[in-house]
Design a protein that fits this description.
Helices cover about 35% and strands about 20% of the residues. By secondary structure, it is of the alpha/beta class. The protein has a single domain, classed as Rossmann fold (3-Layer(aba) Sandwich). The strands form four sheets. Strands 1-2-5-4-3-6-7-8-13 form a nine-stranded mixed beta sheet, with helices on both faces. It has a three-stranded mixed beta sheet with strand order 14-11-16. The longest helix has 24 residues. The site of uridine-5'-diphosphate-4-deoxy-4-fluoro-alpha-D-galactose has 22 residues, from helix 6 and strand 10.
Length: about 375
């Protein structure tokens, strides 16, 4: 990737990293009509990756705005432009909106660890609410292109009943979910006042793999940790075995990232066709306990998963399972790869490939950093 650093009149630097073969864009100056592009914040991340891949494959120009705090940006497809910046960086955003005519925005960039949010609520409100307001102001100033927001099942907290539908009360039990609920309300009022077409996709548990896997440090998610334990890493710590669930371990609705990606494209089509916005659950309607996930991994990889019981993790609800009916009816979305066996197999394959790539890089004297 080629790097370009521009110093702005106010002394700040805006950094562009052009991926191979990319970077062509109108200047927006001197009467030249800027090229249109789709803006994807947090586009280098785990859930966004398969969306960026599909947008690029469809021939759309894609501008990714990402601070690369949890990903390297190396897995972006050729031709995608990466702007390394925070979503609250008004200077970088103004530059993006003047260089390109942004025809749609996918806003993924966020801090997303439930446990961490319990320790650092102010950082979560800053990164997930305050900074994206700057993005939203630019979106409104640019004439309100369709806006697809990465929300979360965490907005529901401990639902009164599962499966949970969009009409349920939002009572988050951790700051992460609270920030997602806040931003949905901000979108609601922005839609009313300015006509912003928006959709909030409430992901349940994003899982599986669709494209290159970038291991996270620290990894907090269940399936990668179960796979790591099966591969000979540290034993899995099972957080809570006294939940009011059939086997005492917490129940979640795991949805394949490839299916999530299709949900994003369906949301954009819906908004472009003038469809009514709002929140949509993206989940399967089927929940699996931690113990069931462990069993599925053992079956898929043919190895035992060493594990130890641990106390409940702060901020974790006992069970979260989607009623995905609205996304099915309105967006025409149906999960196709979200059965647990496929999720586990795809994640295992990607993890093995990432391990092989890291080993090859280490042999070549390149640590990948
Ligand atoms: N778990 C373990 N051991 C681990 C990791 C997780 O027992 O090493 C348990 C958790 O306690 C939880 C379940 O496995 O009960 C799933 O945990 P994850 O960390 O994989 O996912 P969460 O349900 O905590 O959170 C995920 C996303 C959030 C999102 C939420 C919505 O990370 O961003 O799903 O359902 F808000």
């Amino acid at each position: 990737m080629r790097e370009q650093v521009e110093r702005r009149p106010d002394g700040r630097e805006v950094r562009y990293f052009w991926s191979d073969g990319g970077g062509a864009a109108g200047t927006g100056a001197g009467g030249v009509r800027p090229a249109s592009a789709v803006l994807v914040t947090g586009g280098a991340g785990y859930v966004a990756g398969p969306v960026v891949q599909r947008l690029a494959a469809a021939g759309l120009a894609v501008v990714v705005l990402d601070n690369l705090s949890t990903s390297s940006g190396r897995t972006l497809p050729a031709g995608v432009t990466l702007v390394r910046a925070e979503v609250g960086d008004a200077v970088a955003l103004r530059e993006v909106f003047s260089r390109w005519r942004i025809e749609a925005v996918f806003h993924f960039a966020a801090d997303s660890r439930v446990g961490e949010s319990m320790q650092q609520p102010l950082a979560y409100f800053r990164h997930n609410v305050r900074e994206p307001l700057v993005l939203l102001e630019q979106v409104v100033a640019a004439g309100c292109p369709p806006f697809v927001f990465s929300s979360s099942a965490a907005v529901y907290g401990v639902p009164e009943a599962v499966p949970v539908a969009e009409e349920a009360h939002l009572r988050p039990v951790n700051p992460y979910g609270e920030t997602k609920a806040h931003f949905e309300r901000i979108l609601h009022w922005t839609g009313l006042a300015h006509g912003l077409p928006w959709v909030a996709l409430r992901y349940f548990n994003a899982a599986g793999a669709d494209g290159p896997w970038e291991p996270k440090v620290p990894e907090t998610h269940l399936i990668p940790n179960v796979l790591a334990a099966a591969a000979g890493g540290a034993p899995l710590r099972v957080f809570g075995s006294d939940y009011p669930t059939p086997d005492g371990t917490a129940v979640r609705d795991y949805v394949h990232v490839a299916d999530l990606a299709e949900g994003h494209l369906a949301a954009l089509r819906h908004l472009r066709a003038g469809g009514a916005g709002g929140p949509f659950n993206l989940g399967t309607g089927v929940g699996y306990s931690v113990a069931q996930v462990v069993a599925a991994v053992e079956a898929a990889v043919g190895r035992p998963v060493p594990r130890e019981m641990a106390p409940r993790r702060a901020g974790d609800p006992p069970a979260l399972v989607a009623d995905p009916g609205r996304a099915q009816r309105v967006l025409g979305w149906r999960p196709r790869r979200s059965d647990l066996a496929t999720i586990v197999r795809d994640a295992w394959t990607a993890l093995q490939a990432a391990g092989a790539a890291a080993a090859a890089a280490a042999r070549a004297g390149d640590t990948g950093r």
